[in-house]
């Protein structure tokens, strides 16, 4: 663990600010006079910044006090610990942990954390930065290593800078800006090409673009438990806010055109007539030995897929069955009492996240039943908010009632020429997306929609991390 003490002195009475930074192995944090207007104490504030070489270097209760406030479950300590301890996200696989912890010195209270990694490749990120690596190479710039603030192998939107809920809104915005400037300086002073926050929040986009980061938009497909029919909206509009959730799965099907509704019913019938019965397990029903079996089913499917890449191992799956049991939502496909397919989903605060799928047999429409229909049916039954199935084919999801939504990432490149080149590319990409992600109206929501395809991620660079020198700065 490397630690830097960064003292930010703010004197409200004098309406001036001053930063005193001790000699450190990491760059100091910058600040802004605007922060004065959000603070009500004339006493100086001091923050310390720590770079952690392992999630084990911070107490679980402290990290989760910030992480549990985010809607996404994947920034929680147990998830990151399982990835790291199982050997899935570690230096040997090109994911060297450099998590950031920000504390207020006077109270030693943690006010912000960032899961961050020094990456020696771009695999497992689900963003298409291969053209950026090519552009860097053409300019003689070493693209790797790079700094990545993200959840390994998890393309789910959520907060990347986890902030204390006790911070006022104005302080949150300023602290995000300070962190953005700190990351930018960290890369500049240590010969790192770039900094990336993948699948971040709108709040983070606003702060980081103010600090000079570039904004990238992508597309994902989510299913919302919102009955868009005019009858449901009229019935639900009196004295309520938002849209009414579906009464049952049939109410969801009623929003489709006849041909598409008939096709979904036919697909489900074919699965049932093949002798497959679906079973949902949650919480304590999901034992580590079951997760071990699910891993082998998952691995078989990955190995058979020409584009498949196995990022996760059996130990990670069994650790989820031990440490993340309270959030597990597993769908099993059973034939003659034997498991023939499974999906591993994660649940938090009324949002179901589809993660891993595998099958031992080739069975028509079984993938759609296990990965879409049974989870959707359970979301409706439980009254949950939405279902995010993860990466997958856009067309198959739009036809089954999923909606296209924008996701966001921000990026900073230390080389000015490279920054300008990629800025122009991202601006052109946003213009192509503009107007194509629109909410459908009424019963047309399950009709024809524009399909936006994302390019695949290509790996670059040699295997294994190239550690930068954390040279002493004054």
Automatic annotation (TrEMBL):
Pfam families from the UniProt entry: FemAB_like (PF04339)
Keyword hit for Disulfide bond: no
InterPro entries assigned to the protein according to its UniProt record, in alphabetical order: Acyl_CoA_acyltransferase (IPR016181), FemAB-like (IPR007434)
Signal sequence coordinates: 1-16
Domain of life, source organism: Eukaryota
Keywords per UniProt: Signal
Record Gene3D superfamilies: 3.40.630.30
Name listed for the protein in its UniProt record: GNAT family N-acetyltransferase
Organism annotation: Prymnesium parvum
């Amino acid at each position: 663990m490397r630690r830097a003490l960064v003292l930010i002195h703010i004197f409200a009475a004098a309406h001036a600010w001053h930063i005193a930074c001790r000699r450190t192995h990491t760059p100091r944090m910058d600040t802004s006079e605007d922060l004065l207007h959000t603070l009500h104490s004339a006493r100086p504030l001091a923050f310390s910044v720590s770079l952690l070489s392992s999630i084990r270097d911070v107490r679980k209760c402290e990290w989760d006090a910030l992480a549990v406030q985010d809607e996404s479950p994947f920034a929680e300590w147990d998830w990151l610990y399982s990835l790291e301890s199982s050997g899935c996200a570690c230096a040997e696989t090109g994911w060297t942990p450099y998590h950031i912890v920000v504390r207020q010195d006077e109270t030693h209270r943690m006010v912000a954390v960032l899961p961050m990694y020094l990456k020696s490749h771009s695999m497992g990120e689900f963003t298409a930065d291969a053209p950026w690596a090519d552009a860097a190479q053409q300019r003689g710039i070493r693209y790797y290593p790079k700094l990545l603030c993200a959840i390994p192998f998890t393309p789910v939107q959520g907060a990347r800078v986890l902030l204390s809920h006790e911070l006022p809104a104005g302080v949150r915005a300023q602290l995000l800006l300070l962190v953005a400037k700190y990351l930018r300086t960290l890369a500049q002073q240590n010969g790192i090409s770039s900094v990336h926050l993948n699948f971040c929040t709108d709040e983070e986009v606003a702060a980081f673009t103010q600090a000079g980061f570039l904004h990238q938009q992508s597309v994902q497909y989510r299913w919302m438990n919102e009955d868009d029919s005019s009858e449901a909206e009229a019935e639900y509009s009196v004295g309520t806010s938002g849209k009414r959730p579906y009464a049952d799965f049939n109410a969801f099907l009623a929003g489709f055109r006849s041909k598409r509704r008939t096709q979904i019913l036919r697909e489900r019938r074919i699965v049932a007539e093949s002798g497959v019965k679906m079973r949902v397990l949650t919480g304590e029903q999901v034992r580590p030995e079951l997760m071990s079996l699910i891993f082998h089913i998952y691995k078989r499917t990955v190995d058979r897929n020409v584009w498949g890449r196995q990022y996760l191992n059996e130990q990670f799956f069994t650790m989820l069955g031990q440490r993340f049991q309270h959030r597990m939502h597993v769908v099993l496909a059973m034939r003659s009492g034997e498991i023939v397919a499974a999906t591993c989903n994660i649940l938090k605060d009324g949002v179901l996240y589809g993660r891993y799928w595998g099958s031992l047999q080739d069975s028509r429409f079984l993938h759609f039943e296990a990965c879409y229909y049974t989870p959707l049916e359970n979301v409706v039954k439980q009254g949950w908010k939405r279902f995010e199935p993860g990466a997958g084919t856009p067309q198959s999801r739009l036809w089954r009632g999923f909606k296209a939504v924008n996701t966001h990432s921000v990026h900073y490149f230390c080389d000015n020429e490279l920054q300008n080149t990629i800025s122009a590319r991202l601006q052109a990409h946003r213009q192509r997306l503009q107007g194509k992600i629109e909410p459908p109206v009424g019963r047309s929501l399950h009709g024809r929609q524009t399909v936006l395809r994302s390019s695949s991620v290509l790996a670059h660079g040699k295997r294994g991390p190239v550690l930068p020198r954390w040279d002493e700065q004054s």
